[in-house]
Amino acid sequence: MGSDDGFPDEQPIHRVILSGFWLDESEVTNRQFQEFVAATGYQTVAERTPRREDFVGQVPDVNEIPEENLVAGSICYNPNFDRQSFRKDGPLWPYQVWQYVKGASWRHPGGPDTSIADRLDHPVVHVSYEDAQAYAKWAQKRLPTEAEWEYAARGGLTRQPYPWGGELCPSGEWRSNIWQGNFPDENTNADGFLTTCAVKHYPPNGYGLFGMSGNVWEWCADFYRPDYYARSPRHDPPGPLDSQDPNEPGVIKRVQRGGSFMCSDNYCTGYRVSARMKGEPSSGTFHCGFRCARSLPAESQDAKASESR
Fold first, then answer.
1. Domain boundaries, the chain
2. Amino acid 94: pLDDT
3. DSSP 3-state assignment of 55?
Protein backbone atom coordinates (compact mmCIF):
# COMPACT_ATOMS: atom_id res chain seq x y z
CA MET A 1 0.00 0.00 0.00
CA GLY A 2 1.26 3.50 -0.83
CA SER A 3 3.79 4.91 -3.28
CA ASP A 4 7.41 6.08 -3.22
CA ASP A 5 6.93 8.59 -6.04
CA GLY A 6 3.60 10.16 -5.05
CA PHE A 7 2.83 12.84 -2.51
CA PRO A 8 4.32 12.66 1.01
CA ASP A 9 1.09 11.35 2.56
CA GLU A 10 1.33 8.26 0.31
CA GLN A 11 4.53 7.18 2.07
CA PRO A 12 5.96 4.92 3.25
CA ILE A 13 5.00 1.89 1.18
CA HIS A 14 3.86 -0.72 3.70
CA ARG A 15 2.40 -4.20 3.69
CA VAL A 16 -1.25 -4.63 4.68
CA ILE A 17 -3.19 -7.86 5.24
CA LEU A 18 -6.97 -7.63 4.83
CA SER A 19 -9.83 -9.89 5.75
CA GLY A 20 -12.10 -10.81 2.86
CA PHE A 21 -14.67 -8.25 1.73
CA TRP A 22 -17.00 -7.40 -1.13
CA LEU A 23 -16.99 -4.03 -2.90
CA ASP A 24 -19.66 -2.52 -5.14
CA GLU A 25 -18.60 -2.97 -8.77
CA SER A 26 -19.24 0.72 -9.44
CA GLU A 27 -19.96 3.99 -7.67
CA VAL A 28 -23.51 4.35 -6.37
CA THR A 29 -25.58 5.79 -9.20
CA ASN A 30 -28.28 8.44 -9.26
CA ARG A 31 -30.78 5.68 -10.00
CA GLN A 32 -29.75 3.70 -6.91
CA PHE A 33 -29.69 6.77 -4.68
CA GLN A 34 -33.12 7.75 -6.01
CA GLU A 35 -34.47 4.36 -4.90
CA PHE A 36 -33.02 4.93 -1.42
CA VAL A 37 -34.63 8.36 -1.12
CA ALA A 38 -37.98 7.06 -2.40
CA ALA A 39 -37.91 4.26 0.19
CA THR A 40 -36.83 6.36 3.16
CA GLY A 41 -37.66 10.00 2.46
CA TYR A 42 -34.04 10.87 3.25
CA GLN A 43 -32.93 14.47 2.70
CA THR A 44 -29.27 15.08 1.96
CA VAL A 45 -27.20 17.73 3.70
CA ALA A 46 -27.17 19.82 0.51
CA GLU A 47 -30.98 19.90 0.52
CA ARG A 48 -31.27 21.14 4.10
CA THR A 49 -31.33 24.82 5.00
CA PRO A 50 -28.04 25.48 6.87
CA ARG A 51 -27.86 27.21 10.25
CA ARG A 52 -25.14 29.50 11.54
CA GLU A 53 -24.13 26.96 14.17
CA ASP A 54 -23.35 24.47 11.39
CA PHE A 55 -20.35 26.61 10.43
CA VAL A 56 -18.73 26.92 13.86
CA GLY A 57 -15.02 26.17 13.42
CA GLN A 58 -15.23 26.55 9.64
CA VAL A 59 -15.50 30.36 9.41
CA PRO A 60 -13.95 32.97 11.77
CA ASP A 61 -17.27 34.50 12.90
CA VAL A 62 -20.54 32.73 12.13
CA ASN A 63 -22.48 35.87 13.04
CA GLU A 64 -21.04 37.59 9.98
CA ILE A 65 -22.64 35.12 7.59
CA PRO A 66 -25.34 37.08 5.67
CA GLU A 67 -28.86 35.75 6.12
CA GLU A 68 -29.31 35.44 2.35
CA ASN A 69 -26.41 32.97 2.26
CA LEU A 70 -28.11 30.56 4.67
CA VAL A 71 -29.86 28.65 1.91
CA ALA A 72 -29.66 25.04 0.78
CA GLY A 73 -27.00 24.33 -1.82
CA SER A 74 -23.63 22.75 -2.46
CA ILE A 75 -20.16 23.32 -3.91
CA CYS A 76 -19.51 23.44 -7.65
CA TYR A 77 -16.68 24.42 -9.96
CA ASN A 78 -16.81 28.07 -11.04
CA PRO A 79 -15.68 28.31 -14.68
CA ASN A 80 -15.90 32.11 -14.41
CA PHE A 81 -13.39 32.46 -11.56
CA ASP A 82 -11.39 35.69 -11.51
CA ARG A 83 -8.38 34.93 -13.69
CA GLN A 84 -6.85 38.35 -13.04
CA SER A 85 -6.43 37.78 -9.30
CA PHE A 86 -5.91 34.01 -9.48
CA ARG A 87 -2.74 32.75 -7.76
CA LYS A 88 -1.21 29.34 -7.03
CA ASP A 89 1.18 30.26 -4.23
CA GLY A 90 -0.66 28.68 -1.30
CA PRO A 91 -1.83 25.17 -0.34
CA LEU A 92 -5.51 26.20 -0.52
CA TRP A 93 -5.29 27.85 -3.96
CA PRO A 94 -7.91 25.49 -5.49
CA TYR A 95 -10.56 27.12 -3.30
CA GLN A 96 -10.44 30.09 -5.69
CA VAL A 97 -12.19 28.06 -8.40
CA TRP A 98 -15.06 26.76 -6.29
CA GLN A 99 -18.38 28.42 -5.54
CA TYR A 100 -21.38 27.66 -3.34
CA VAL A 101 -24.36 27.23 -5.67
CA LYS A 102 -27.80 27.74 -4.19
CA GLY A 103 -30.07 24.84 -5.07
CA ALA A 104 -27.29 22.48 -6.13
CA SER A 105 -27.85 18.94 -4.86
CA TRP A 106 -27.79 15.33 -6.01
CA ARG A 107 -31.03 16.00 -7.91
CA HIS A 108 -29.61 19.16 -9.48
CA PRO A 109 -25.85 18.59 -9.84
CA GLY A 110 -25.09 21.85 -11.68
CA GLY A 111 -27.64 24.02 -9.87
CA PRO A 112 -31.44 24.36 -9.74
CA ASP A 113 -31.79 24.48 -13.54
CA THR A 114 -30.06 21.11 -14.07
CA SER A 115 -31.42 17.58 -13.72
CA ILE A 116 -30.34 13.95 -13.46
CA ALA A 117 -33.02 12.79 -15.90
CA ASP A 118 -30.37 11.83 -18.45
CA ARG A 119 -27.78 10.87 -15.79
CA LEU A 120 -29.44 8.06 -13.92
CA ASP A 121 -26.47 5.76 -14.59
CA HIS A 122 -23.94 8.43 -13.58
CA PRO A 123 -22.52 8.46 -10.03
CA VAL A 124 -24.53 10.37 -7.47
CA VAL A 125 -22.74 13.55 -6.36
CA HIS A 126 -23.23 16.33 -3.79
CA VAL A 127 -23.36 13.64 -1.10
CA SER A 128 -21.67 14.27 2.23
CA TYR A 129 -20.01 11.59 4.34
CA GLU A 130 -23.20 11.53 6.43
CA ASP A 131 -25.32 10.97 3.31
CA ALA A 132 -23.05 8.16 2.10
CA GLN A 133 -23.25 6.44 5.48
CA ALA A 134 -27.04 6.72 5.50
CA TYR A 135 -27.29 5.03 2.11
CA ALA A 136 -24.83 2.30 3.10
CA LYS A 137 -26.80 1.50 6.25
CA TRP A 138 -30.03 1.28 4.26
CA ALA A 139 -28.34 -1.04 1.75
CA GLN A 140 -27.03 -3.19 4.63
CA LYS A 141 -23.47 -2.34 3.66
CA ARG A 142 -20.80 0.09 4.85
CA LEU A 143 -18.16 2.43 3.47
CA PRO A 144 -14.84 0.75 2.62
CA THR A 145 -11.72 1.44 4.63
CA GLU A 146 -8.96 3.25 2.80
CA ALA A 147 -6.86 0.06 2.74
CA GLU A 148 -9.72 -1.96 1.28
CA TRP A 149 -10.30 0.68 -1.36
CA GLU A 150 -6.67 0.72 -2.51
CA TYR A 151 -6.41 -3.07 -2.56
CA ALA A 152 -9.54 -3.24 -4.71
CA ALA A 153 -8.41 -0.42 -7.00
CA ARG A 154 -5.15 -2.20 -7.81
CA GLY A 155 -7.09 -5.12 -9.27
CA GLY A 156 -4.34 -7.61 -8.47
CA LEU A 157 -1.48 -5.52 -9.93
CA THR A 158 1.58 -4.69 -7.83
CA ARG A 159 3.12 -1.21 -7.59
CA GLN A 160 1.39 0.08 -10.71
CA PRO A 161 0.05 3.67 -10.70
CA TYR A 162 -3.28 2.90 -12.38
CA PRO A 163 -5.90 0.15 -12.06
CA TRP A 164 -4.95 -1.08 -15.55
CA GLY A 165 -1.15 -0.79 -15.33
CA GLY A 166 1.68 1.68 -15.80
CA GLU A 167 0.53 3.99 -18.62
CA LEU A 168 -2.13 6.67 -18.30
CA CYS A 169 -3.29 6.26 -21.90
CA PRO A 170 -2.13 2.90 -23.25
CA SER A 171 -2.09 3.00 -27.07
CA GLY A 172 -3.52 6.52 -26.84
CA GLU A 173 -6.75 5.27 -25.30
CA TRP A 174 -8.31 7.04 -22.32
CA ARG A 175 -9.17 4.66 -19.49
CA SER A 176 -10.66 7.14 -17.01
CA ASN A 177 -12.72 10.32 -16.90
CA ILE A 178 -10.30 13.08 -15.86
CA TRP A 179 -9.34 16.65 -16.83
CA GLN A 180 -7.17 16.97 -19.94
CA GLY A 181 -5.24 20.21 -20.18
CA ASN A 182 -4.00 22.82 -17.74
CA PHE A 183 -6.16 22.92 -14.62
CA PRO A 184 -8.05 25.18 -13.98
CA ASP A 185 -7.59 27.28 -17.11
CA GLU A 186 -8.18 24.88 -19.98
CA ASN A 187 -9.91 21.54 -20.42
CA THR A 188 -9.41 20.07 -23.89
CA ASN A 189 -12.12 17.48 -23.11
CA ALA A 190 -10.15 14.82 -24.96
CA ASP A 191 -12.05 12.03 -23.22
CA GLY A 192 -15.42 13.53 -24.19
CA PHE A 193 -16.64 14.31 -20.66
CA LEU A 194 -16.67 17.71 -18.97
CA THR A 195 -18.36 16.33 -15.85
CA THR A 196 -19.44 12.81 -14.89
CA CYS A 197 -19.92 9.86 -17.20
CA ALA A 198 -21.84 6.60 -16.79
CA VAL A 199 -20.27 4.42 -14.09
CA LYS A 200 -19.46 1.54 -16.47
CA HIS A 201 -18.27 3.56 -19.44
CA TYR A 202 -14.67 2.35 -19.16
CA PRO A 203 -13.50 -1.30 -18.85
CA PRO A 204 -13.22 -2.79 -15.34
CA ASN A 205 -9.96 -3.61 -13.59
CA GLY A 206 -8.69 -7.11 -12.84
CA TYR A 207 -11.23 -7.57 -10.04
CA GLY A 208 -14.17 -6.57 -12.23
CA LEU A 209 -14.51 -3.13 -10.61
CA PHE A 210 -15.46 -0.09 -12.68
CA GLY A 211 -14.36 3.52 -12.24
CA MET A 212 -11.59 3.05 -9.68
CA SER A 213 -9.79 5.94 -11.39
CA GLY A 214 -11.43 9.27 -12.17
CA ASN A 215 -15.10 10.21 -12.61
CA VAL A 216 -15.79 11.13 -8.95
CA TRP A 217 -13.93 11.01 -5.66
CA GLU A 218 -15.22 8.32 -3.30
CA TRP A 219 -15.71 8.59 0.45
CA CYS A 220 -13.88 6.05 2.63
CA ALA A 221 -14.58 5.27 6.28
CA ASP A 222 -11.24 6.54 7.64
CA PHE A 223 -10.33 9.80 9.29
CA TYR A 224 -7.52 11.52 7.38
CA ARG A 225 -4.04 12.02 8.75
CA PRO A 226 -1.02 12.54 6.46
CA ASP A 227 1.25 10.54 8.79
CA TYR A 228 -0.94 7.47 9.30
CA TYR A 229 1.07 5.14 7.07
CA ALA A 230 4.10 5.39 9.36
CA ARG A 231 2.14 3.71 12.18
CA SER A 232 -0.67 1.87 10.42
CA PRO A 233 -1.31 -1.63 11.81
CA ARG A 234 -0.63 -4.45 9.38
CA HIS A 235 -3.94 -6.30 9.78
CA ASP A 236 -7.17 -4.59 8.69
CA PRO A 237 -6.07 -1.00 9.37
CA PRO A 238 -9.18 0.98 10.40
CA GLY A 239 -7.62 4.41 9.94
CA PRO A 240 -6.52 6.81 12.69
CA LEU A 241 -8.61 7.63 15.74
CA ASP A 242 -8.82 11.30 14.83
CA SER A 243 -8.23 13.68 11.97
CA GLN A 244 -5.43 16.10 11.19
CA ASP A 245 -4.96 18.20 8.06
CA PRO A 246 -1.93 20.55 8.22
CA ASN A 247 -3.52 22.83 5.62
CA GLU A 248 -6.67 23.36 7.70
CA PRO A 249 -5.91 22.63 11.36
CA GLY A 250 -9.00 22.01 13.42
CA VAL A 251 -11.21 21.01 10.48
CA ILE A 252 -12.15 17.33 10.65
CA LYS A 253 -11.48 15.42 7.41
CA ARG A 254 -12.36 11.99 6.06
CA VAL A 255 -10.45 10.17 3.34
CA GLN A 256 -11.56 10.33 -0.28
CA ARG A 257 -10.08 8.13 -3.00
CA GLY A 258 -10.00 7.64 -6.77
CA GLY A 259 -9.79 11.11 -8.25
CA SER A 260 -12.41 12.78 -10.39
CA PHE A 261 -13.14 14.49 -13.68
CA MET A 262 -11.46 17.55 -12.13
CA CYS A 263 -8.05 15.87 -11.68
CA SER A 264 -5.25 16.68 -14.13
CA ASP A 265 -1.56 15.88 -14.50
CA ASN A 266 -0.63 19.45 -13.47
CA TYR A 267 -2.79 19.39 -10.34
CA CYS A 268 -3.67 16.53 -8.00
CA THR A 269 -3.17 13.39 -10.16
CA GLY A 270 -5.77 11.85 -7.83
CA TYR A 271 -6.63 9.20 -10.40
CA ARG A 272 -3.60 7.14 -9.30
CA VAL A 273 -4.49 4.16 -7.09
CA SER A 274 -2.27 5.36 -4.23
CA ALA A 275 -3.39 9.01 -4.29
CA ARG A 276 -5.12 10.30 -1.16
CA MET A 277 -7.56 13.19 -0.75
CA LYS A 278 -9.56 14.43 2.19
CA GLY A 279 -12.93 16.10 2.57
CA GLU A 280 -14.90 17.86 5.28
CA PRO A 281 -17.54 15.26 6.24
CA SER A 282 -20.57 17.57 6.34
CA SER A 283 -19.97 18.92 2.83
CA GLY A 284 -20.78 17.48 -0.56
CA THR A 285 -19.36 18.61 -3.89
CA PHE A 286 -20.26 18.12 -7.53
CA HIS A 287 -17.29 15.77 -8.05
CA CYS A 288 -17.56 13.44 -5.04
CA GLY A 289 -19.63 10.27 -4.60
CA PHE A 290 -19.06 6.85 -3.04
CA ARG A 291 -19.37 3.09 -3.33
CA CYS A 292 -20.13 0.58 -0.59
CA ALA A 293 -18.42 -2.46 0.89
CA ARG A 294 -19.57 -5.51 2.82
CA SER A 295 -17.55 -7.80 5.07
CA LEU A 296 -17.52 -11.52 4.39
CA PRO A 297 -19.45 -13.56 6.99
CA ALA A 298 -17.28 -15.00 9.75
CA GLU A 299 -17.76 -18.55 8.48
CA SER A 300 -16.47 -17.53 5.04
CA GLN A 301 -13.41 -15.97 6.64
CA ASP A 302 -12.74 -19.17 8.57
CA ALA A 303 -13.06 -21.27 5.40
CA LYS A 304 -10.63 -19.04 3.51
CA ALA A 305 -8.14 -19.30 6.38
CA SER A 306 -8.39 -23.10 6.34
CA GLU A 307 -7.80 -23.22 2.57
CA SER A 308 -4.64 -21.19 2.91
CA ARG A 309 -3.04 -23.50 5.47
1. 19-52+71-78+88-309
2. 76
3. helix
